[in-house]
């Protein structure tokens, strides 16, 4: 078979193989519930049996005893904020984990006396890997953690608030806010301690702000007392009955976009209209060669009658006779 005839088949096989690979390859984006790599939330989500939400429309009508985990790396619409308010007012707990995202948009919407500073927290003495991984060991008694418990942050920030009664955890007095992002303290940098976790009650529900979403990524949830800390935070308003993890405001990478496109395509194809359209397209493609052959035969000149051996002998003898005529 000629190479040009093989090319369409090879192209189709390659495209199908790539689509299958994209479909089955796990997500790699930061904080994704299905991401099993170091920067994902797969361990956290499976440990608490969290349901991943692709939009706020998936929140339950009855939010009493439910948890909503929010890592706000994309801005919120007024509709999103309204759904979050309904969730909290109905008895749900919002766990807002942010460092340099859009967490303040939610806090301002609720008019709370707390905000994320958005400045890196550095601790040159009490840290895990290096100065950018501060260890937190000063907790409010409300969390019911042991005196030896401490959790490690991963390039997190701090909270700003005048309501010290709502603070759940503080950094050490050796920590400081690095205005230039370096690990070297300058004259403009403020010394700690700083609040890194805070809670407040609203109606029947609760809002908890934690100044670092990376404390429970797969590479950090098993470090120090990170798991114990987040477990106590989640159950601060009583044992939760369900957990929901919003994925619609997370960072979106190339693979995430491709997966979303395939998911939309699958939804369309699986609908009755989509299935019918695909069937018609397949029938059209399969019958295309027949239509081309029919058109070429009807448009071309009629095929000459095939010549046999007798016709050739007759022509030869006729030629010899004509040659003998003077």
What this model shows, in words?
Strand 13 and strand 14 form a beta hairpin. Helix content is 36%, strand content 17%. The protein has helices at residues 3-24, 42-47, 78-89, 103-109, 226-234, 254-270, 272-299, 309-324, and strands at residues 51-53, 66-70, 93-97, 114-116, 121-122, 135-136, 138-139, 151-152, 159-161, 167-170, 176-177, 190-191, 195-202, 205-210, 242-246. An 8-stranded mixed β-sheet has the order 1-15-2-3-14-13-10-7. It is of the alpha/beta class and 326 residues long. The chain starts with a helix and ends with a helix. The protein is built from 8 helices and 15 strands. It is elongated and about 90 Å long. The mean pLDDT is 85. The protein folds into 2 domains: 1-28 and 254-294, no CATH class; 30-252, Rossmann fold, CATH 3.40.50.
Short description:
By secondary structure, the protein is of the alpha/beta class.
